[in-house]
Amino acid sequence: MNLREVDIVQDLSPEEFRSKYYRQKPVVLKGLSDSWNATKSWNWDRLKEVVGSKEVGVYSNAKNPENKPVHAPHAYMQFEDYIDSIVKGSGQWRLFLFSILEHAPELLNDFEWPDAYFDEVLRKYPMLFTGAKGCVTHLHFDMDLSDVMQTQFIGKKRVLLFPYEEQYHIYRRPFEVMSLVDFQGYYNAEFAEKLDRYPALRKAQGFDITLEHGDTLYMPSKFWHHMEYLEAGMGLSLRSWQTEWKGKLSGLYHIILMRKLDGFMKKNAPDMWYKYKLNRIRKKEATALAAPI
Asked: Which of 127, 162, 165, 220 is the most buried (most CB within 10 A)?
């Protein structure tokens, strides 16, 4: 893989952001969240205070099986117990798409919406992502095709990014937004063994970044992202939906038609569907390998 650093910019104005990065390429924004109360006050005790003992669905590092529908949470826990487990380092669970509006509306006053940077900010969907050290969010792109700003408040997180156009170099699973490859530990020497199994990865062009407290990562629509918690951590994701009808319809296709078709086939003809998709992946691999660099 050919990975380069993401631009890191201090106090980027909305005008500069829109001209250089918006819907073009990722960037890390320093200073965007400096005035937010969340940057100063969000910690594990604060989360436990506002969410309390509510039951939440948690996820492990297990990757979605290629021949089964997208799974529900792997377990359910009381929020307080979940936080205690990841802080102590005794748990390997993460929260995925945790709705602030549903579980902790008090937190809405602790940050500012990026209206000057984004069009059509989705105010119904501010999401928290938390995880224990070692937790992984496997490589995918968001099926609603939103632009995303994710701000890190606790701990460090390492992020691997690819443009959408790299989908066949990174072995996209047909009719899904996931990759066939498990990128966990992609920065370690042992990962080189996967280049023999997945040779098109050698041609993949992407980005690598480590997020720290207060960093805001902007990811354009359809950007592939894989995240690893280097420490127990928490981040906030704010989203902006497509503004043009073509983009909206494409997002709805991914959410409704593509997802339902894949789920139907995995349920009713899993072996045949898996073989078909694997054959298609290998054909795309051959095409990617034959193409000039």
From this structure: 162
